[in-house]
Specification:
This protein is 29% helix and 21% strand. The chain has 156 residues and is α/β, with parallel strands linked by helices. It has a seven-stranded mixed β-sheet.
Length: 156
């Protein structure tokens, strides 16, 4: 799986409540989540996510184990999230909803073009390639299928 987008830079320890605040989880309407993603962190951020690759610091997705955080990012048009490390539950939730979670130490320059190739094991920005922590073949299949539900439907 390959992808690309413009970099949106975030710091370390972005928790799931910063991604989508709990007050918006009473609805299953994803358009509500999309309009309020990162609202408490930066109200203007939601408008910059379509086609973005989020490049964050360590421990992205910490906090509660809400699957809605990964869904809100995917529905916002985020192509991938790159960080040195993820909270494990967020990492699996992201893969399961079809959002690439890529572990790499990529320095971020806001708006810079970022590319990735999960099978080849790299991310690229500013003309330089950086290795990523490899995803298992099964995880890459889940992402290619668009998430775990789609993957299982295609394997029945």
């Amino acid at each position: 799986m390959q992808g690309a987008g413009h970099a949106v830079c975030l710091g370390p320890d972005i928790d799931t409540d910063q991604v989508i605040a709990g007050r918006y989880l009473r609805t299953k309407d994803h358009s509500i989540w999309v309009s309020h993603v990162f609202e408490d962190l930066d109200p203007a951020l939601a408008g910059r996510l379509k086609g973005a690759v989020i490049v964050a610091g360590k421990n992205f997705g910490c906090g509660s184990s809400r699957e809605q955080a990964a869904i809100a990012l995917r529905e916002s048009g985020v192509a991938a999230v790159i960080a040195p490390g993820f909270a494990r539950i967020f990492f699996r939730n992201a893969i399961n909803v079809g959002l690439p979670a890529i572990e790499s130490n990529l320095a971020c320059i806001e708006g810079e073009h970022v590319r990735f190739d999960l099978a080849a094991g790299w991310v690229e920005a500013g003309g330089s390639r950086y290795p990523i922590r490899p995803l298992s073949p099964r995880m890459r299949e889940i992402l290619a299928a668009g998430g775990l539900v789609s993957y299982w439907r295609s394997h029945q």
